[in-house]
What does this fold into?
Amino acid sequence: MSLQYVIDAYNIINHPQFKPAKRKSPNIQSLLAEFVISNRLSGSRKNKVILVFDGYPPCGEAMPDEEGLICLFSRMIEADEVIKRLVEESGQPGNIIVVSDDKGIRTVVSSLRARVFSVEEFICGKKRTGGFNCPNQDNESEISYSKMQVINEELKKKWLK
It folds into this structure.
């Protein structure tokens, strides 16, 4: 039984642990694809990966061409809506793992019986002790990425009025 990872791509790109290799990748989509593949984040090669991006594909840029990896663009709707539809339309939502830090999409896909990983769980994996094991993790900050997002939103409300 192979798994299908549906990834909220910009959640990973904006995460502090996203440290792509310095290669000649033409765009962020390719950098993310290389990051997922080179770090074997989806486990087995039989597992499929769908990277879901907000907006439209970049004009004239080549998309990653890897077996078992697809880049989807949400176009005029939000990426969260595309992720939700992928899970809803699946015949086996229990074989889907959604990777996102967005509370709303996590709640919806969990109710549809798909599994959910935070970006940190996906990138770093979980130790048996319950902590995370990120090899390049800087211990400068004790605040989780999710908490940073909440703080940033609060600051935006106060400062960008």
Notes: Residues 145-159 form the longest helix (15 residues). The radius of gyration is 16 Å. The chain has one domain: 4-134. The mean pLDDT is 84.
